[in-house]
Write a structure and sequence with these properties.
The strands form four sheets. The protein has a seven-stranded antiparallel beta sheet with strand order 1-18-17-13-12-9-8. It has a seven-stranded antiparallel beta sheet with strand order 7-4-3-11-10-2-19, covered by helices on one side. A three-stranded mixed beta sheet has the order 14-15-16, with helices on one face. The longest helix is centred in the middle third of the chain and has 21 residues. The chain starts with 11 loop residues before the first strand and ends with a strand. The chain folds into two domains: about 250 residues, no CATH class; about 220 residues, Gamma-glutamyltranspeptidase, small (S) subunit (Glutamine Phosphoribosylpyrophosphate, subunit 1, domain 1). It has about 525 residues and is α+β, with helices and mostly antiparallel strands. Helix content is about 35%, strand content about 15%.
């Protein structure tokens, strides 16, 4: 059970609204929208715009946007897919013509259409009550006047300065050859101009106006995107995917996101009495690690753009399939798990408003500073989501023109009997699905409040270094040493990290208990949760 005083921060409380985001200035901007009568959708755009300024290495208008929106009046969860597609020139034949054996990690060829701005407009058209110009005022202010650089922004800029070659990026983020130091103002006048023009002209500026032309011109020679790709971009409203877990329903974004992996893991866990194990005991962590490995094996085999590939979501999420896959778990030892056959640097934030609406958002450039490409005179960092395509012609996520890549971006809303229980989102790349599983089970199985659920130690499976085995389990140093030793005896390749390890995500969430909003923000990052 949860421990009194375990969390380093108290859980945030509110009755009329709440914002939990990755930067205090963004949280304050959202709270101000709520205090003046705006709704969750309005606050989400204001929050995201400020994060685009204050977290330029994580997110921005040059990236993609997904959200789950709980509409209180209809008692239902909606899904907004704001992801862009690959360029019309993206193909295996084009790679061959260029003499490339693999896709680069950063650079112009990794840029897919940025979907964020169109998604903002779609969100406001359906659920907003405030005009875009009003919502962009705080972001324009911080871009034009500057904001004090956080340690995370300074570190990310220094680390990427030796990797990114784009001259415009260096002019914007490392003038005079250095990054802004902690507390030093980071001023982005080109981005302020872009946001001001966006407020005046709307999203068409981004996809066909000055900004769209600047993006197309920058990528004309060595990218895959064209002006036509930008002009033709659309987002879509749709339905989330979901599964029952214990007495709740967990909603996640559908493919091409990895929300399916989080639901697969929860389906598998439902067959075990998780709460009988002491939290962060050997038995608890061994079970979670092995179940996550099973779910990720299916993730890597099946998830792709469902409009261009067969993704058997209903079969994968069936309870019968979970029962078959569950048999592979061995309580005594770690294993490598193959995929099954069912037929045989990002920002996440959550907002709740006085009407009972909740929005859970995930928005990203993917790698730190995305592609590292900044079209001149825009201040916009373009994402590198296009790096996540497979080059295997038989794989459903194979590179092809105008195709959405596999996305690590996910957000979650949990309901019970049609009413919201919590909203949750976290950055963390490939680890997001396993972080969802860890935090959600902390709440749903162990009864923790949102702040404690977020602060509890987390693990991350997967290689980060070329010489590191893919099954390495990185685990935070707050886990007891005898537990780490016990996991090693079961065959896990354990690597102990710092107490609050930055690569296990910066998570944010809001839970609803008896009409009170209870928010959490991750001490691993710069975030803040505030209620009203």
């Amino acid at each position: 059970m949860p421990q009194i005083g375990y969390a380093h921060r108290p859980v945030a409380l509110g009755r009329q609204g709440m914002v939990a985001s990755a930067h205090p200035l963004a949280t304050l901007a959202g709270v101000e929208i709520l205090k003046t009568g705006g709704g969750a959708a309005d606050a989400a755009v204001a929050v995201n715009a400020v994060l685009a300024v204050t977290q330029p290495y994580c997110c921005g208008v040059g990236g993609d946007f997904f959200c789950l929106y709980y509409e209180a009046a209809a008692r239902r969860v909606h899904f907004l897919n704001g992801a862009g597609r690959s360029g019309g020139r993206a193909s295996l034949d084009e790679l061959g013509r260029r003499g490339w054996e693999r896709l680069p990690v950063i650079g112009p060829a990794t840029v897919s259409v940025p979907g964020c701005v169109r998604a903002w407009a779609m969100l406001l058209d359906r659920f907003g009550t405030r005009p875009l110009p009003e919502l962009l005022v705080p972001a324009i202010h911080y871009a034009e006047r500057g904001f004090p650089s956080t340690l995370l922004v300074s570190q990310a800029t220094r680390e990427m300065a030796s990797v990114i070659q784009d001259r415009e990026w260096h002019r914007v983020f490392a003038p005079e050859g250095r990054a802004a130091e902690l507390g030093e103002l980071l001023v982005q006048p080109d981005l302020a101009r872009t946001l001001r023009e966006l407020a005046a002209e709307g999203p068409d500026l981004f996809y066909g106006g000055r900004i769209g032309c600047a993006i197309a011109a920058r990528l004309a020679e060595d990218g895959f995107l064209t002006g036509e790709d930008l002009r033709d971009h659309t987002g879509e409203w749709g339905e989330p995917i979901s599964t029952g877990y214990r007495d709740a329903t967990v909603h996640e974004p559908p493919p091409p996101t990895q929300g399916l992996a989080a639901l697969l893991a929860l389906n598998l866990l439902e067959g075990f009495p998780l709460a009988r194990h002491r939290v962060h005991s050997v038995e608890h962590l061994h079970l979670l690690i092995e179940i996550v490995k099973l779910a990720y094996a299916d993730r890597d085999r099946w998830i792709a753009d469902p409009l261009q590939a067969r993704v058997p979501v209903p079969a994968l999420l069936s309870k019968e399939y979970a029962a078959r896959r569950r048999k592979a778990f061995d309580a005594r030892k770690a294993q490598a798990h193959p995929w099954g056959d069912p037929e045989g640097d990002t920002t996440g934030f959550v907002i709740a408003d006085a009407a009972g609406n909740i929005i859970s958002v995930i928005q990203s450039l993917f790698n730190p500073f995305g592609s590292g490409v900044v079209p001149p005179s825009t201040g916009i960092v373009l994402q590198n989501r296009g790096r996540h395509f497979s080059l295997d012609p038989a794989h459903p996520n194979c590179l092809a023109p105008r195709k959405r890549p596999f996305h690590t971006l996910i957000a979650s809303i949990v309901t019970r009997d049609g009413a919201p229980v919590l909203g949750f989102a976290t950055m963390g790349g490939n680890g997001q699905a396993m972080f969802h599983v860890q935090v959600l089970t902390n709440v749903l199985d162990y009864g923790m409040d949102m702040q404690e659920a977020i602060e509890r130690p987390r693990f991350l499976i997967g290689a980060f270094l070329p010489d590191e085995p893919a099954d390495t389990v990185r685990i935070e140093g707050r886990v007891d040493r005898p537990v780490v030793a016990g996991l090693a005896r079961r065959g896990h390749a354990i690597r102990t990290e710092s107490d609050f390890y930055h690569k296990v995500g910066h998570a944010h969430g809001i839970a609803v208990r008896g009409g009170t909003l209870m928010g959490g923000a991750d001490p691993r990052g710069d975030g803040l949760a505030l209620g009203i």
